Model the fold of this input.
Amino acid sequence: MVKIDLVTGFLGSGKTTFLLKYGKYLMSQGLKIGILEYDYGAINVDMLLLNKLRGDRCELEMVAAACDEDCLKRRFKTKLIAMAMSGYDRVIVEPSGVFDMDLFFDTLRDEPLENWYEIGSVITVVNANLRSGLSEEEDFYLASQASGAGCILLSRVQLSDPERIEQTKRHIAEAAERIYAGKLKGSFLAKDWETFTDEDFRFLADCGYHVSDYRKVIAGARSDFTSLCFMDLQDDLEQMKAKIQALFASEEFGHIVRVKGFVCDRQGGCQINATRYEMLVDPIAIGQGVVIVIGTDLQAEKIRKFMTGDEQ
Done:
């Protein structure tokens, strides 16, 4: 049977950064892997980032999630059937941060998938500097994903401190209690990813998973979260950073949770990952300016005019 992992985590937690490291480790062990990306945007930014893994031992696939619940499950199942026939030793699913765990577990119980796949690890990535004041829906995704994890992997540990890390752990545990998920069964791993050893990656590859019952505050795949995608933007890095800061600062655009994408200017390409509390910029070879805005109650026309300068 093919082992299948789920690498999940709420918006901006660092899933794709981890997956780049995890994928390299699995390939270094001689495994052939397939990565299935699941996202809502017109362009899957995370899939573009993962392209550097593509090669003889790694292929990338995508499921577009902008459809109803039944359609999404059919697409997900169809893609997994095809991947089961592709000779992979391990398949890794990286969904959107706005992800209902039942989609993963229920689909894998369906025939013929239950005869072809064995769940390996469910790894939930959480920012070690998790902020308070999350909405009910945001806390639901955080808690439901953590409750199914074999390991809750903390990101940005090197930018945190012991007190903040303990606050983050308490926040996750309290959020799980609010949706009646019970006590978290997965272990925590709080370590700078740059110092990971093969032993750390082996632990993650074998950490397993937990099936947890909880009260849903969403109806199936129907979420209040939406996304807007802007392509061929001409802003340089400083202009884009200023725009992103303005989006978070003003309520007139809606409740924006994350902005991610690429900026191209004369200094080269950059990847931007931003939340209300931090903005990370890393150099990357990319030829197109693309930005995705994610949140709730998004004022699409106002955001479009602001991002493009188009008043029509």
Q: What stands out?
A: The mean pLDDT is 89. The CA atoms of residues 13 and 127 lie 5 Å apart. The radius of gyration is 19 Å. The chain has two domains: 2-205, 225-308.
